[in-house]
Write a structure and sequence with these properties.
Elements: H1 4-14, E1 17-22, E2 29-33, H2 35-52, E3 58-63, H3 69-84, E4 88-94, H4 103-117, E5 121-123, E6 128-130, E7 133-140, H5 143-151, H6 153-157, E8 166-168
Parallel strand pairs: 3-4, 6-8
Antiparallel strand pairs: 1-2, 4-7, 5-7, 6-7
Length: about 170
């Protein structure tokens, strides 16, 4: 234990700063160090932590209700890539003109996408039908859920049989 005046003098002789590390401790703990360098290292550590905590972005995959099988497979592969990167996906079925008469085509399409992605992603709520767009949001499975899926082979073979679409009306 060194007196504050003597510690300040020691820091000044070395050309460094006296920094209080633990002010709540009795007696308070101080260190002699270069404060500018210390702050620089702290901001570097904070940036590294923040870069690792990147929240999954929401990526969109748009399809039409009468899309051909090969084109749909390409869109599903895009969605798989996005989910494997840790992003959420929003699958949009966009209706045009007289296609609005057949919303069951959109539901069937969303069911197919959900079935194809069920091993790597999970549904976030029910699909929503807003005006001319029917949408479905899926997020990646966590590591625990992936391990659980491998042990539950009975549940893994089941398909998503029915998707109930929530109808919403926007006030225009």
């Amino acid at each position: 234990m060194v007196a504050t005046d003597k510690a300040m003098q020691m820091a000044h002789e070395k050309g460094l700063d006296l920094v209080e590390v633990a002010p709540t401790a009795t007696p308070p703990v101080c260190k002699i160090l270069d404060y500018g360098k210390y702050r620089y290292e702290q901001t570097k550590k904070e940036k590294k932590v923040r870069s690792g905590q990147r929240a999954g972005l929401l990526k969109e995959v748009r399809v039409r209700p009468q899309v051909k099988d090969h084109d749909l497979e390409i869109k599903i592969n895009q969605a798989k890539k996005f989910i494997n990167e840790g992003n959420k996906i929003k699958v949009l079925v966009v209706f045009r003109g007289r296609q609005m008469v057949h919303p069951e085509l959109g539901v069937r399409l969303l069911q197919k996408v959900a079935n194809d992605l069920k091993g790597i992603g999970q549904l976030d709520g029910q699909p929503i039908h807003e005006g001319r767009i029917m949408s479905l949001i899926m997020s990646p499975l966590s590591a625990k859920q992936v391990v659980g899926k491998e042990t539950k082979d009975e549940k893994d073979t089941k398909e998503v049989t029915e998707i109930k679409v929530k109808e919403t009306i926007k006030n225009a």
